[in-house]
User: Fold MESDC2 from Bugula neritina.
Amino acid sequence: MFATVAGNPTRAETEKISALWESSLFNANIQLKRYVIEDDRILIQIDDGSDSIQIRDFLLEQENCLDVTVDSKTYDGKGKKLLDKNKPLTKEEAKEKKKQEAEAKAAKEAKKKAKAKKEKIEL
Assistant:
């Protein structure tokens, strides 16, 4: 199993973050060995394969986990979602977002007018 740390961490930061992950999993009675193989990537050795799903799910929920690879299948972590959220929009995405915001504003105004009209009728 491999995990990638989100952002652009140094080897020391990756060591520190993966040590926190390891201790959290150890507290949940899950044994593993971790090896920092690149500045942002770790190799996780598991003695009991039945723990792999639990480990994967735990790592994917960590905000500083970009992705986890198990058996050549890569899963996006919370860190990837946060990076995507902060990524600048393309022109098309910005245009679509602006259109959606305008539609939402128009719907809100229509609802407000309908409510005012209903209150006026009730008086």
Remarks:
- Residues 11 and 54 are 25 Å apart (CA to CA).
- The helical segments are 11-27, 52-60, 78-86, 91-122.
